[in-house]
Amino acid sequence: MSLDFQAHIPFVRLLGFTLEKFEGGESELHFAPRPEHCNSFGVTHGGVLMTLLDVTMATAARSTQPGSGIVTIEMKTSFMRPAPVAPGKPLIGRGRLLHRTRSMAFVEASVFDAEGQLCAQASGTFKYVPRVESPDHRQYTLPTD
Predict the structure, then answer these.
(1) Please, which residues have CB within 8 angstroms of residue 13's CB and are 6 or more apart in sequence?
(2) C-alpha distances in Å from residue 90, one per residue of 51, 85, 125, 140, 143
(3) DSSP structure string for 3-47
(4) Which of 56, 125, 132, 143 makes an SS bond possible with 109, Cβ 3.0 to 4.6 Å?
(5) What pLDDT, in 10s, does the model give residues 25-36?
């Protein structure tokens, strides 16, 4: 049974990520890529993997402060092997908060295939911000000060 992201994230819903772990600075997300998530080689597109890594890291950081919003400041990604698109075999993103200050989080995440092979790795810096909800998804200024 997947958990609630505790935030409305339309792009995550569109991709179909599910939250499986959200506690103590750790997160786990599952993602079942479909053919429309492929690159020209027939494997999961790097941009989709980067999104999975980004959300996995942000979720790990938010797990220690669930009521907060969080924004990505920077991230570095390394791709180790192609992430296959295989029905019934989701990719697994695991994130871990390495260090945090009052306003910043330093996080890492990895994406594994269904056999447990490492496909991609990322590290990132995130900023905690007050949560701002916009029910109609209008543009607004994000408070990052």
Answers:
(1) none
(2) 15, 8, 26, 35, 35
(3) BP-SS--HHHHHHT-EEEEEETTEEEEEE---GGGB-TTSSB-HH
(4) 56
(5) 999 999 999 999
Give the closest residue to 74 by CA, choosing from 42, 106, 117, 98.
106
Report the mean per-residue pLDDT for the chain.
91
For residue 140, the tally of other CB atoms under 10 A from its CB is 9
pLDDT the model gives residue 118: 98
| Residue 95 exposure: Cα atoms within 13 Å on the Cβ side | 36
Domains identified in the chain and CATH numbers: 10-129 (3.10.129.10)
Distance from CA of residue 76 to its chain's centroid?
A: 13
The token pair at 47 is 């941009």
Q: What is the pLDDT of residues 57-90, one digit of tens each?
A: 999 999 998 888 999 999 999 999 999 998 889 9
Global pTM reads 0.90
